């Protein structure tokens, strides 16, 4: 059994966490969770719907009333204990991620480091929430601006980073004094439940952090977005679902932060360090089997180096080891499910029919199931689906450009603007291009841009708000203005 792989079997939770209690049965039955690498049954979990969402929200409201009155130092101490427990149980949490999501253990351990960093960072930020004293317009007045926690928050999180996408939201929410109800993706609830177990061990009060299980996301999501006690919605996922959540939240005017889909361009100029570019492209494209919102979806290469770079990328991609993430040395795990594989195949068919060339890969892996070969496709153009839509798989399309202006125009020719990347050794070109790119984040001579200290988020249809950094906690705070009049001047 998979639970036997854990050192601490108490982290294998098979029920929803509501008001500090583990709920293993509901009136709505159960759903099954399978390992994407083997197809084997992992666990059966209870399905939560409206009643369970209501209970979690009401518990979160009760917990918020007390937690919001605690000192920043106390919140720091509790969240920091949670951070320490996540670090202590890193290997077990990584194993859970690999079992339910498929990514290689090495990447899963990296995700736990990343997830823990948000708890550590925002534990510290709890002590740094400050207001202002504003010069008044009258001698008898004093004007103050206070920052106060917004209240009950609801988080709907994706399957591709099941630990980090929770701590990146829960860390600042709890640090600000808020409570949070989490609806993790139905494909990856085990990691969320283990985080909930560690939160309880750390002293997070009952109801302050709840986790709803089940595949009835439409039902639970509808309650989270419409309930009057929920003051904020935070979501990471597709733009299509983000639009729906924004519409549903409009009736109660909730504060919303949305980290949505991307179509990240990666530009390689003719003066780039090609060794660095190859390494950066491989990381930006193939991390988590290409299933990342900031994955390089389009690699734009200058004409003069196109064939050389294409050859090197194809050779390196062919060397990547595909396999079960639990096996040491695996670099590319399975895709999340059959629908994801089918989408990759459809994008490839469209590209090939339009004249694109598959340099390496291009088909399901011999391992079968949800495994797909790392793929490099040349002679792609902006009219192809693979360049217009987020493929979300291990497929690297290569496009040509002739000059800087064309590269920038191609990069910006999308409704999305989450991440972008560029490789160049010309400082003027770097500044000029980075400022011109319509993206919330730009990686320069690197394919790794995620960090707890940096503001993560996009522009255009890639989202609203920022996560991480000193700006991230502001998403969970309201500003209250105090006008104090009637003060007498000193004699």
Automatic annotation (TrEMBL):
Taxonomic superkingdom: Bacteria
Gene3D superfamilies, per database record: Aldehyde Dehydrogenase, Chain A, domain 1, Aldehyde Dehydrogenase, Chain A, domain 2
Domain Aldehyde dehydrogenase: 23-481
Pfam families hit by this protein: Aldedh
This protein's UniProt keywords: Oxidoreductase
UniProt-annotated catalytic positions: 259
Family to which this protein belongs: Belongs to the aldehyde dehydrogenase family.
NCBIfam families referenced in this protein's UniProt entry, alphabetically: SSADH
Listed name of the protein: NAD-dependent succinate-semialdehyde dehydrogenase
Species, as recorded: Serpens gallinarum
